[in-house]
Amino acid sequence: MRVRQNNQWSSVGRISTCRFPNPTALQGFGQNAWLATDASGAAQAGTAGANGYGTLIGQTLEGSNVNMAEAMTHMISLQRAYSLSVRAFQQTDRCLGWPLRCGANA
User: Fold this and answer.
1) Is 3 helix (H, G, I), strand (E, B) or coil?
2) Are strands 8-11 and 2-5 parallel, antiparallel or unpaired?
3) Is 19 helix (H, G, I), strand (E, B) or coil?
């Protein structure tokens, strides 16, 4: 890792990364974290970019893995389904309440 101070670049260290003998056996933990399991094997630490370890690229933006059009379409569908359910419950309430009101007036 390098830092710039007074317009001078200097190396200050290295960032370690880890890999696993069987990465498909890692257990998901939350949205973007993984836990080692017996099947995945122990973590093997190494230097980023060396001997098959992952690389790190500074000053970059991570690309989004969310398709906004698909997410909005799904949200609209859920909102419509919720509205329909509310209307169905309201109509059921009216239908069940009508005989009760008529029986109370008799």
Assistant:
1) strand
2) antiparallel
3) strand
- Residue located via tokens 């710039």: 4
**For the chain, which residues make up each domain, given as ranges?**
1-56, 66-106
Each residue's pLDDT tens digit, 18-38: 889 999 999 998 878 899 999
Which CA distances in Å does 95 have to 8, 22, 85, 99?
Answer: 79, 60, 15, 8
Contact assessment for residue 53 and residue 23, using Cβ atoms and an 8 Å cutoff: no
Q: Are 13 and 48 in contact (CB under 8 A)?
A: no
Is-contact 48 56, C-beta < 8 A? yes
pTM score? 0.45
Task: Check residue 66 and report its DSSP letter.
Answer: -
Count of positions (residues) in the chain: 106
Pairing type for strands 27-28 and 44-47 reads unpaired
**CA–CA gap between residue 63 and residue 59 (Å, rounded):** 13
